[in-house]
Amino acid sequence: MKRWGVLFRRxxxxxxxxxxxxxxxxxxxxxxTPHHVGVILDGNRRWAKENPDEHGxxxxxxxxxxxxxxxxxxxxxxEEAQVKIVTIWLLSTENFKxxxxxxxALLVIIGETIDSLKATGxxxxxxxxxxxxxxxxxxxxxxxxxxxxxxxxxxxxxVSYGGRREIVDAVKGYLEDAAEHGLSVHAAAEKLSAxxxxxxxxxxxxxxxxxxxxxSGEQRLGGFLLWQSAQSEFYFCEAYWPDFRRVDFLxxxxxxxxxxxxxxx
Length: 265
Fold this sequence. Notes:
about 260 residues, alpha/beta, Undecaprenyl pyrophosphate synthetase, 6-stranded parallel sheet, 9 helices, about 45% helix, globular
C-alpha cells in the first residue's frame, strides 16, 4: 500500500510540474534575467547515499557522476533564460583533503564533464582556479577546452578553486605586473585599488554575478567568488544537485526578480 502511495504522488507531480513550470515562465520578465549566475553544485555525496546505483552501491563517485550529468541540462535552462555567463564550481581547493580514492575518481569525472561540454559546441568554456594544483593530464584537457563563439554562453568551470586563494593570486599578479613596469613597492601600494585587483581575478573582464545559487540546503558560500559576490543575491535550494530541476531554477530566477537591489544605497 505504501509503495502505491509513493507511485501515486510521483504521478501527480509528473502531471502538475509542467503546468507549474509554464506558470512560472509566464510570470518571469526575461529582460530582468541576471547576466551572470554562479552555482555551487552541492549534495552529490548525500544524494548517492539515498539513491544507490543499480548494484546497490552508494559511493561518492556515483553521486558525482549523477551531478555531472545534470550540468548540460542546467546550461540549457540558462540558454532559455538568456543568461550570458555561468560559473559552476566543480572542485574546491579544500576538496584536495578528501581520500585519494574519491579525489582520483572525481578528477576523472571532471575530465569527462569537460569533454562532454566541449563536444556540444554550444558554449565557451573558461577554466578558472589554481589549475597548477591539478594533474598535468587535466591541466592539458582544460587548456584545450577553450573556445570562442560570440553568441554562446560563457561557462566558467571553477576547478581547484578557492575564493581566498583567488584574491591572493590576484594580489600576486598585480605586484608582479607592477614590478615588470618598474614600479617600486611604495608606488605599487599607492596605485592599488579595488579595480586594479579585479583586473587580476580569474574572472577578469567579466561582470560580477548578480545571482548565486547553492543546492542541498546549506546556507553558506564556502569561499565561492568571495570578491565578486559583494553585491550578489543568494538563493539556497533544498534539493541535492542531481535532483535540481528546471522548476527550481525558475524559482531562483523569480526570487531574484522580486528583490530590490539597492547596492548599499
